[in-house]
Design brief:
26% of the residues lie in helices and 30% in strands. It is an alpha+beta fold. α1 crosses α2.
Length: 152
């Protein structure tokens, strides 16, 4: 299946902040203001972190993720973290997540960040894209440990 999408860096697309924050809020239930604040930091800041990325098809957001210092877990030494990875269900299984992850790894490397971490409950998904299981970590408010992945 041929799908036509584009991956955008929020830092280069400030006009997409409102729509992007609304989309992430809808996908994850985290307050929209938290996304707005982080995306504004991405645009106004001089640091590599935070960063936000969206995947757009036909001018509609179909996927996205962020890079933040800590994705709400008990291992602040493992930083920065990929967070809020999401591809809308009807676009899954078409390589969108893999392309987005690859794009972000390369962009972060260009910004001087060559090691990234990712906390997830998935057990094999990220290995397909060059991520390695690193350790278990406890997410804030969680009772069960989750898998921490690393990409170098």
């Amino acid at each position: 299946m041929d799908i036509n999408y584009e991956i955008l860096k929020i830092r280069e697309n400030a006009g997409m902040i409102e729509e992007s924050a609304t989309w992430f809020n809808k996908m994850w239930g985290i307050p929209k203001q938290a996304y707005l604040d982080s995306m504004n930091d991405c645009i106004e800041g001089t640091n590599a972190v935070p960063q936000w990325y969206i995947t757009v098809m036909d001018r509609k957001i179909i996927g996205g993720l962020g890079v933040i210092e800590n994705d709400f877990h008990n291992r602040p030494d493992l930083s920065p973290n990929i967070c809020a990875v999401y591809v809308e269900e009807k676009h899954r299984g078409q390589g969108v997540a893999g392309a987005l992850l690859d794009f972000v790894v390369k962009d972060m490397r260009a910004l001087g960040v060559d090691t990234l971490y990712l906390l997830t409950d998935h057990t094999s998904f990220y290995e397909r894209y060059g991520w390695e299981f690193y350790c278990l970590a406890l997410g804030d408010g969680e009772e069960e440990m989750s898998r921490m992945y690393i990409h170098r």
